Amino acid sequence: MPDTLQTFCDPDFAKQFARQRPLRHIDLFDLRLVADTTDAAIATLMAPGRHRVHFVNAHCINTMARDAGYRRALATADMILPDGAGIELAARLCGKAIPENLNGTDFVPNLLRAAAASGHSVFLFGGRPGTAEAAADTLTGLAPGLRIAGTLNGYADATDPEQVIAQVNASGADILLVALGVPMQDTWIAAHADRLVPRICLGVGACFDFLAGTVARAPVALRRARLEWAWRLLQEPRRMAGRYLLGNPIFVARALRHAANGTDRVALLRRLMDLGLSGAALILLGPVLLTIALAIAATSRGPVLFRQTRVGKDGTPFTVFKFRSMHVDAEARRTALLATSDRAGICFKSRNDPRVTRVGRLLRRFSLDELPQILNVLRGDMAIVGPRPALPAEVAAYPARALGRLSIKPGLTGIWQVSGRAEIGFDKMIDMDLAYARSRSLLLDLILIALTFRAVISGRGAY
Predict the structure, then answer these.
(1) Are 388 and 410 a contacting pair, CB within 8 Å?
(2) What residues of the chain score a pLDDT lower than 50?
(3) Do 358 and 294 share a structural domain?
(4) Cα 321 from chain centroid (whole Å)
(5) Both 190 and 327 in a single domain?
(6) What is the pLDDT of residues 18-33, one digit of tens each?
(7) Domain interval for residue 118
(8) Would you give the end-to-end CA distance of the chain in angstroms?
(9) Where are the membrane-spanning stretches (predicted)?
(10) Number of structural domains the chain divides into
């Protein structure tokens, strides 16, 4: 915990920290998927050892269901990286979180930058004639100093596996990228991994096409909205129609069935309740959210949304969203105000905090500044009901018993939130959170949600 908290408090430690701790994973579709950052995954790959790496998306899971050889290849992989919104959705349905989309097109250049810095070389195998060479040229620009050990296409050059293996091994490459498409690339790597000299082998799908520019990648806005699949469908409707128009609904049904079979039913119901309530709230409160955003923008300098690192379930950091209720220099002024806290214990609260804006005081009075956390609930970082999400500095100062509140997801509301909020001292808050963690139920959650409306109207402890 102390190492993790040091990283939370100072982002400059992130890469160093990633090299010091084990890679985080989740189990999904009977596969062990990485649930960690790009830096952490690259740090693991660059450490000594051999690694067979595969990426999985919704299409891969559909393919795995009907291809036993591909299923074996994934099941025996050293590392499986989550790619796309479908895998993220399936994880959330199971109450799990994937902190970063580790798709091959973004991951490979980052990996090869690290490889270039370490003097490692790469071999590119796959794609149409000329594609691997064009991709290699792009990669040398993205990763200065990268050594290209060789290239082979996935057509005429790929007809004899023995020749491919011999040429790859003779090149002395440290990393092998294979772009033969799913499932061929993955079964090829699995079949020949023991005879290949490169210690890192990755199946990278359409990565060469994107790097070479033969297939245009979706605009950044669509990628952020998790709609890259729609862009590819528009570009190649004939080839992609089956994968997306038929495959996506099949995958969603498969993900729901997997969640129902593999997750505690109460946990699944709680997650579905979170999704339903937060989704409905986002739609119904749309005009309110827009009005608040305009009021903040019109009355004080700075962004409308405030983003801050908080500590979630099992000590996992996440970014919490709130409407900005303070001036932009609030974080810099926090230390100087700690002595003015009106609340006993670790968590700082000041009734007359000079950092709060005029609009911010109104937002805090009715807890409207918390509304953007609906997005955190939809993302799976938080639940509707749970403990207040803590700051890293607060968790760093926790006594041992207080760490028990990190055993469940933080929530928009909870026992502390409906019982007086800042008027409740730290020790009593911990008692409440631990009691909730021991006895939580759907009925208790519904009661706490109902009590939240009374707490918001009364404004008790809201400052």
Answers:
(1) yes
(2) 1-19, 343, 461, 463
(3) yes
(4) 15
(5) no
(6) 445 689 899 999 999 9
(7) 2-230
(8) 30
(9) 275-298
(10) 2
The answer as to whether 184 is a domain residue is yes
- Burial of residue 190, with CB atoms counted within 10 A of its CB: 0-12 exposed, 13-18 middle, 19 or more buried: buried
pTM, entire model: 0.68
Which of 58, 56, 42, 47 is CA-nearest to residue 113? 42
Contact in structure between 29 and 61 (CB atoms under 8 Å): yes
The count of C-alpha atoms lying within 13 angstroms of the C-alpha of 113, restricted to the half-sphere facing its C-beta, is 9
Gap between the Cα atoms of 213 and 203, Å rounded: 19
- pLDDT tens digit string along 235-271? 889 889 999 999 999 999 999 888 878 666 777 788 8
| Alpha helix (H) residue ranges in 143-264 | 161-171, 184-192, 207-212, 220-224, 228-235, 237-241, 247-262
Q: How many CA atoms lie within 13 A of 195 on its CB side?
A: 13
Residue 179 near residue 204, CB atoms below 8 Å: yes
80 in any annotated domain: yes
β-pairing, 31-34 with 25-28? antiparallel
Closest CA to 413 of 291, 318, 278: 278
Helical axes 265-284 vs 442-458, angle rounded to 10°: 30
260 located within any domain: no
